[in-house]
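2024-03-11 09:14:02 DEBUG pipeline.ingest accepted 1 chain
2024-03-11 09:14:02 DEBUG pipeline.ingest length=212
2024-03-11 09:14:03 DEBUG pipeline.predict start
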Amino acid sequence: MEKLVTDGLIFDVDGTLWDSTPVVEQAWNHALSDMGITDVVITADQLKGLFGLPMDVIIDNVLPEKSKEIRRQYKPLCYHYEHEYLTKTPGILYPKLKETLTELGKRFPLFIVSNCQEGYVELFYEKTGFECFFKDHLCPGDTGLLKADNIRLIAERYGLKQPVYVGDTQMDADACKEAGVPIVFASYGFGKVKDPDGIIHEPWDLCGLFRP
């Protein structure tokens, strides 16, 4: 593939910067236990196939046989225990991520746009110390908007003419298409992407993907 041109990189979190699914598995099963739900077990592999979707859609998928009221009650418990568990045991960072962000940050402004809940990116910053690398972040918990609109909002806010998004699922790619920005596929993440504009096999590959 030809090298890309950009004036700003926007990152997904889960499956792109870190993998929190083993910890979230424990947290969400704790929430199930609190609600007395014994016929459902959530796995990290299941979550990898769902992360990137809006939270309500994820819960619909993990509790398809439960009532709307049960799913409504489950959501805040997921948030509570997820934050509690990740505070104690953070997600697993992908190799050479700090070195990659350090190098890229010398060349471009860096951002995060994720379909996560309010406070999740801040927790990522807290547990990694990586807030210094990112100029801004947006998520539905902050704006009430989903990924495509938040990508547009970041681009408008910072005057980006050629932003590029880095993500790991077809859902990310679909949001990028809607927002009109290229996607670099993080193939080490959770999913697959059809016809990405670029592919990386580890974060450091980003450093050689863009024109000077």
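2024-03-11 09:14:41 DEBUG pipeline.report The chain has nine helices and eight strands.
2024-03-11 09:14:41 DEBUG pipeline.predict end
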